[in-house]
Amino acid sequence: MKKISIVIPAHNEQNNIHPLVNELQKVLNSTGYTFEYIFVDDGSKDNTLNEIKIQSEIHPEVRYLELSRNFGKDHALQAGLEMATGDAVITMDSDLQHPPEMIKEMLRYWALDYDVVYTYRAEANAHAKKYQRFSSKMFYKGINMLSDIELENGIADFRLLDRKVVDQLNLMDEYEIFFRGMVKWVGFKQKAIPYTPANRFSGEASYSFFKLIKLALNSMMSFSVRPLYAVTGIGLFFSLFSVLYIPYVFISYFFFGQTTASGWASIIATVAFFGGLQLFVLGVIGMYLGKLFMQAKQRPNYIVRSSNLVKTGNDLIEL
Ligand code: UDP
Ligand code: MG
């Protein structure tokens, strides 16, 4: 019988663990596959880990990884994917916003030989506020423009991955992990299905506004060097402009005696503009350099503090 691993990152989700496991059990028991749950406690400050441990005593197929601190959702997902042993892996949030019912549909497509079945938010997203909808749209527009992959608006970390895709993702030894992009990048046979997110069952979303901006910038940059080309283009444009403009200045000075001494405002404006532009371009280059620096340090993307499983080859042994 084929085995499915469900990888679930959790950060301060103490009241969601029990209802989620209940919902998943209801859906999964009728599918004819065997299952394992891999909860990744991403440095929760509340009782999340204990709640998971309680579930693992009731259901032997519940496994957990406790990370040593909060590493962020994508790194938590990475930890879970590396520990998963299933023939397919499903990743989903722990706040019940990703409807467990949809797993059946994913499994149907998997049986039809799709390697990746991923979800995106159906357009009518009644729960999001206006500015959230707008900023999320801008985020995907930006990413599609600046990188070499095409992401659907509202693409989610709720997806099924075949074993061969998981193996491929596990080989990608990147510091800046952005699964929504990486899964697209690896290719294979992919199927997108829309979903309507439910309300968060309990607790609050962990992402603040600034965290989201940082995430957006990082994801764009880790996916492409196109911003570097863009600033090179801007630089080139202005150098060409000055190549034409400088002879004009000299000719009007030497041959026509024009010194345009009254040009203070235009000089200040130009100096300020180019000063700003240069700093901006340096900043873009610097951000890439920073990424190289972080990658060169080869630090682990996550550290496991405790777990009820260890991986040996392709098998998990329970401790
Ligand atoms: N999460 C995590 N680490 C973090 C932030 C979030 O593991 O640093 C988990 C969280 O527990 C949830 C999922 O990632 O299962 C999505 O987070 P959240 O609901 O806060 O964000 P949103 O629904 O707005 O995407
Ligand atoms: Mg959520």
TrEMBL record:
Xref: InterPro entries: Glyco_trans_2-like, Glycosyltransferase_2, Nucleotide-diphossugar_trans
Gene3D superfamilies: Spore Coat Polysaccharide Biosynthesis Protein SpsA, Chain A (3.90.550.10)
UniProt-listed SUPFAM superfamilies: Nucleotide-diphospho-sugar transferases (SSF53448)
UniProt keyword terms in alphabetical order: Membrane, Transmembrane, Transmembrane helix
GO CC terms: plasma membrane
Protein name as annotated: Glycosyltransferase family 2 protein
Transmembrane domains' residue ranges: 228-251, 263-289
Residue ranges constituting the Glycosyltransferase 2-like domain according to the UniProt record: 5-168
Species whose genome carries this gene: Mucilaginibacter glaciei
